Amino acid sequence: MSLMSFFNRRTSAPVARERLQILLAHERGIVGGQPDLVAKLREEILAVVRRHVMVEHDNVQVKMNRDADISTLEIEVEIPAPVPVGAR
Amino acid sequence: MAKVLVVTSGKGGVGKTTSSAALGAALAHGGDKVVVIDFDVGLRNLDLVMGAERRVVFDLINVVQGDAKLSQALIRDKRLENLSLLPASQTRDKDALTEEGVAKVLNELREKFDWIVCDSPAGIERGATMAMRHADVAVVVTNPEVSSVRDSDRIIGLLDSKTEKAEKGDRIEKHLLLTRYDPARAERGEMLKVDDVLEILSIPLIGIIPESEEVLRASNMGSPVTLNNPSSAPGRAYFDAARRLKGETVEITIPSDKKGLFGKLFGRRAA
After folding, report:
1. A42: chain B residues, CB-CB within 8 Å
2. Reported ipTM exceeds the 0.90 cut
3. Residue B175 phi, psi dihedral angles, 5° rounding
4. Is B51 known to sit in a ligand binding site?
5. What CATH fold (topology level) applies to the domain B3-246?
6. Domain segments of chain B: what residues?
7. Mean pLDDT of chain B
8. A16-80 falls under which CATH superfamily?
9. What pTM does this model have?
10. From the candidates B221, B223, B268, which should be mutated to test the interface with A, based on the most A CB atoms within 10 A?
11. Which of A25, B127, B185, B250 would you call most buried, defined as having the most Cβ atoms within 10 angstroms of its Cβ?
């Protein structure tokens, strides 16, 4: 056990408190105004992308990170390469 | 060959989620590919106990209903790359779990993982029956306390009648995991002993997890106790249980966090 972890051993409750505050703020909808905002954003963003390019359901990766001050929604859409003119 | 393991108990608060996370991480630590699934739709907590609560995007019900692919809903653990979590939905109700839907998800998972650990909700309602339905192995989590033992007995009855294996005439493998055990109190006659519980429930013992401060500390930190403090008494007890699940013969012991002089002088303040 390192020296740091020795001194940190008693500090688990503040970690628990902070994790709960962030989580519950999102679940109660305090952050972002509505509890399922991210789910809605995700669906609508994907719908807009699909309006313009054919996207395979499998080629979409959605990552989320909720923090106290800022949350990030990362949507990675793999867009198929255009078919070269000569290959048609 | 993938194994579907249900962690169940009937009674709430006995340590199902703690045990699912700890056993899942211990199995993954040994190199197996492991996924832990939260079946507690509406009251999910496995994500929080495993420290992945900020990263949940899709959940089991999204996958069952076809709104998301399995690969999109699986959350890979940041500490162990061969450990994944499939969270429960927080907003929908348990009726969204259909038997066919769950079977389809489990079949897909069987191809990718060695162990599929199903964390059952308390009770005997839909979430609990769905969690055990397709299991090959069951870990019945029991506290040495009358109401917990009674509820475990009821759950053992359901495992022998309502699971797919039971309906086909096979026997589901059942193991007892005794949690929050205090050997000193049992010795003083203040708590049911291991042998008392074994005699009443008559299923084989997979491990004894001693009552320990480390369990709360790990859940505060959002880390399975087997990762947060592998050398702690509950950490070692869960590692031993995981090895027994894999078929190894490991002598049953009750690990303890016995403190040396230094620990006795300074350790008490933590309590």
Report:
1. 57
2. no
3. -135, 145
4. no
5. Rossmann fold (3.40.50)
6. 3-246
7. 93
8. Cell division topological specificity factor MinE (3.30.1070.10)
9. 0.88
10. B221
11. B127
